[in-house]
Amino acid sequence: MMPTTCVLAPVMALSLLQGVAPLEGSATPPYDGQPAHSSALFSVKATNNAAAQAFTTENRRISRVSVYVASQAATGRITAQIRTDKSDSASAIATGSITLASIGGAGAGWLEFPLTADVTPGTTYYLHLQATTTESKPVAWYGTVASVPNSLTSWNYDKAYWGGWHAYSSRLAFYVDPSGSERCGEAEPCYVPAASLAARTAGLLTNGTATEAVLPGFAVGASYVDGSNVLRLPSGRWRYLPDDAQTSIVVPANDPGARAQISENGRWLESGTVPGTTEVQRAAARRALLSMRALLQPDGAFAAAWSPAWKYSWPRDGSFAAVAFAATGHDQEAYRILQYNARTQRADGTWEARTKLDGSGPPDQRAWQLDGNGWVPWATWQWYQAAPGADRDARLRALYPMVQKAADYATRSLGANGLPPASPDYWELPTDTTNIGTAAPLLAGLNAAVDLASRLGQDSDRVRWAGAAERLSEGIARYFAPLGYPRTIDGRHGRDSAAAFMAPPFNQAPADLPAALDSTYRALLLPNGGLTPGNDPGFSWGSYAWTASTSFFALAWAHLGEEERADAVLRWVFSKRNGLGELPETVNGSGLPSSVAPLGWTDALAVMALRALQGDPLHTPPLRPGRASVTEGEK
């Protein structure tokens, strides 16, 4: 028979070394910490289990202690005490207690207990830990079974097996008065609720040339300083990415280098506009803009997010970011993305589904996606509406060959029915027949290209593309509209949130679109309050809501004059920001942020919707060939 130990997920075998414990007073220098925590050593659940670690200190006062714990229980309380006698609660000279609910429930990591105790240097004390919970799930104190030189004894209380306390040569993970890198959130994470691990990333640090993800474990208890990309840690110190550095460093609060970066972040925000009519909205917009800026690379590539599978540039995501930058007065960032799109356009006028961030090509054999031929010209047109007037025509001419090749390919792609061929779209999955996620962006792009051609006096292009836009519009009206703008023209693949692409600021809304948006929204609404991208009977997105798909409707309704509905959708989206205020890609069935955060596409959608809600909607490419959509009085 073996003593009771703790089994946690993932299950870790417990190797208990039963050697002779060293004498309690034999360690020199003071033994006041041990960081290794590869093994779940002892259960600490009351009333049958507890644990204690002998220690000495050279300090005369203790203000905090930390331990590495893991709990499958979500409720209850963990109590730490400093005792002079491990077995006598009356000998406690300091007590600190934390409820599991207050730290997010089940989880694992370093847990700091504020407490105050006057102590005598060199005297042996005991850090005692015990948890109380009504749940049957384990709570354990972690440590190492490896030898720790000059260490003091770790003690396991197991009433059922030992009948009381038993000494072990394994060593518990703890710190007495942790400081500097010993503080949680610096070199190692604080206690991380299991729910937080649903996301791969939680935030971003950047210096303008390099970007670093903030992992969920290091976001717990942290916050950005003064609306910047400098992170305030639970210890009070700051983490940031210095100029020309590739990795972040931790510095004292108010470090001059970090302060300079905070000031620069503020100046950049002030160089444009931050949309929103409430402080919640403006805070969300500030964070979205700074995160988009962090995802934008010096060469103009725009990373979808900062996690390996997302660390590529999609023409679609970059187009939305360019529009959001342009709409908030950040012209250089918008134009840089469009220049990147021009450089990475294929010879036939199309784009790869995604490219490496250095522009060297696609990372794999993923099928290319035709919707880029609509999104990029549309983004170019939106940039042009917002660009400073002095040289915008000259800058447009530099981009025009890209627009020309994209619109010409889109024109050639249309079949006898006026529709483009089946192509993967934002779902990044093939369809057997034309999907609305390709047709609607192409219509927006062709109408945008028509107007740009008119601006530059390119009459033959204007006429050619206007004819293609008219044919495509008629095809959509004939095949998609009677079915309520579903995913595909065969009507066999359910509803699609891309129906919102038929609304402004992408396309002038057909008369029957508002009713179709209503029915689509209801069909895609999940119990967690967000939307699934679609309800194709042959493919399930599960219980996950996608913040981008949900935000499509906020953007559409804000531009259709349905402000209350748009505001309600945005309130839900903003309620799903993580602890750092970042917008995630998805929200799981429990209503928690998941996948990656931030997602640049959702950031861009939120910024555009907020601008519309404050009474400054984006323009929409005109329907009539060559008609200017922005009058001189509007510029």
What do you see in this structure?
Strands 1, 2, 4, 7, 9, 12, 13 and 14 form an eight-stranded antiparallel sheet that branches. A six-stranded antiparallel sheet has the order 6-5-8-3-10-11, with no helix packed on it. It has 13 helices and 23 strands. Helix 6 packs antiparallel against helix 7, helix 11 runs antiparallel to helix 12 and helix 12 runs antiparallel to helix 13. It is of the alpha+beta class and 635 residues long.
Helix content: 25-40%
Structural class: alpha+beta
> Distance between the terminal alpha carbons, to the nearest Å?
83 Å
The portion of residues forming beta strands comes to: 15-25%
Low-confidence stretches: 1-27, 625-635
- Oligomer state equals single chain
Globular, elongated, flat, extended or rod-shaped: what is the shape? elongated
* Number of H- or I-type helical stretches: 13
Total number of strands: 23
Q: C-alpha Rg, in Å?
A: 29 Å
Largest sheet: 8 strands, antiparallel
The overall pLDDT average reads 93
